[in-house]
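Box 4.2: Ligand-aware structure prediction
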Amino acid sequence: MFPDLTRDDVFRLETRRLWLRWPRQADAPAILRLAGETAVAEMTARIPHPYPAEAATAFVLASRRANAEGSGLTLAITPRAKPGTLIGAVAITEQDGRAALGYWLGSPHWGEGLATEAVRALIDAYFAYTSGGELHASARVINGASRRVIEKCGFVPTGSRLHPFPARGGVFPVDTFRLDRRTWSSFKAWSSTGFVPQGRHEESHAV
Ligand SMILES: CC(C)(COP(=O)(O)OP(=O)(O)OC[C@H]1O[C@@H](n2cnc3c(N)ncnc32)[C@H](O)[C@@H]1OP(=O)(O)O)[C@@H](O)C(=O)NCCC(=O)NCCS
């Protein structure tokens, strides 16, 4: 799915506050501590709870393998000032033949817009570096924060369904969403279309 550019572990995405980089074994303790929290794990399909120590190592290995093969792209979310410190993860992987978005952020960092910032960067990379036409996302119907992140990134709701959550031991109702390349492209262009608020327009003519 992803090209040579992202398949090397020097690949990085930079945003105003974040560096997104390949996960490393040194991240395992942070993954264990942050993803191991009930509030994070219970919203995800694959993060076990309690989180066994070896699961963090396995996650890093599997992510790096998929990144190297280009079959997905999983990146550690780190603060720009501390790129060695993992605070969450964001990924696009293939699920049922479709490109699917997933993410989590450690609870001490919630409510600052960081997940949205990370997700937007990975979406931009997906449409910029691959020929993929659309991305899919889903969130448990009780997960208002995740739904909001998805909406702020331009995804459109496509319905609800029961989705397998292997780490939770069952199926759970989720809302599903889709973002196609044209909608993403339109979102990106919106801020540069030249709209001038009324007051500012008049001020500029009054000079
Ligand atoms: C979902 C998650 C990534 C959000 O991280 P975050 O950095 O706090 O997200 P952001 O700050 O970028 O955006 C959150 C938005 O949800 C809103 N929000 C927070 N709690 C909410 C709730 N209970 N109901 C509705 N909206 C909520 C916030 O106000 C914000 O929207 P705003 O910018 O319009 O005010 C984080 O809570 C998390 O990791 N949760 C556990 C794992 C998870 O749910 N992963 C996604 C699986 S689909």
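In the box above, the bound molecule is coenzyme A. The chain has a mean pLDDT of 95.
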